[in-house]
Amino acid sequence: MCSPRVSVCITTYNHGQYIAQTLDSVLIQKTNFEFELIVGEDDSDDDTREVVINYAKQNPGKIHLFLNERKNVIFISGRPTGRWNLVNNLEHAKGEYIALVEGDDYWIDQSKLQKQVDFLDSHPDYSMCFTDARIWDEDRAEFNDKTFSETYAANGTKQTVEFGDMATNHWIPTGSVMYRRSAFEDFPDWFYKIPMADWGLFLSLLKNGPGWFMNECTSVYRVHGSSYWSSLPVTARQEGRCLFFRLVRNEFGFRKGIAMNQAYCQQKFENYRQEKNKLSNLPKLFYKVQKKFWQLLSALIRS
User: Fold this and answer.
1) Distances in Å between the alpha carbon of 16 and those of 21, 245, 286?
2) Over the chain (303 residues), what is each successive 10-residue block's mean pLDDT?
3) CB neighbours (10 Å) of residue 63?
4) Which segments of 68-159 are extended strands (E)?
5) Which single residue of 127, 187, 200, 256 could bond 205 by disulfide (Cβ 3.0 to 4.6 Å)?
6) Cβ-count burial 163-192 (b if 16+ within 10 Å, e if not)
7) By three-state DSSP, how is residue 277 classified?
């Protein structure tokens, strides 16, 4: 096999009923270049490991399999994560470009890789590109009416995406992303501590160049009870966002960090209001003054 243009990095854990669909959707990609699959299996409790071993045997030289041990798992906020698995995959990737997909998601466009390589080849100033995704609800066994971007892009979408567009609102489906390996090769300490690795990765990429949003659905994001993020209680997710903003807000310079600081304080305010319910008797003026303060400060920084 020639040196791959693209490394497709797949992290998987307890995805026995999904991982075959994921691998098939990658293997059927139609390209005019070579690509490899980097599969990290995190010592699942189900038959995920057996499935990926069989696929690797059937695709020698195409699938590079890493059978991890649970002793390497990194805990964040007391919960096990796939962070070590992800970093290990990325460190072993050889492609000029890296595509991401998790073991419970899958692709629905056989030309996904080709379209994204064509774009990045012709736009060397862009660090990444991504598409929209359909959302499959496993419990209801049906697709949601709204796509990923329609669900999560609070301020709408745009084709050229810059750091500020993602600083406080994460709406990029991970399974749709392709990026330049050269744009993010070193893993800072905070990357091993933040709750949402994909968001931190995307912000780091956008610091080095804009991203391009292809407004079409090439992948499926699966929501199910054992999904790491969606299975967390609302309060845990809110605290996770606070931890994320606190850890990364100083990593991107003062002008970029100001948005992080604003988001951090607003999230802490919202957490306190919801969890403690101690603000119900305070005048609404408090919140208005806080909001006006951040608007004036942001305007001052941009000036």
Assistant:
1) 10, 33, 50
2) 91 97 98 98 97 98 97 92 97 98 98 98 98 95 96 89 86 97 93 92 94 97 76 72 75 59 60 55 51 55 48
3) 21
4) 75-76, 79-80, 97-102, 106-107, 128-137, 142-143
5) 127
6) bebbbbebbbbbbbbbbbeebbeebeebbe
7) coil
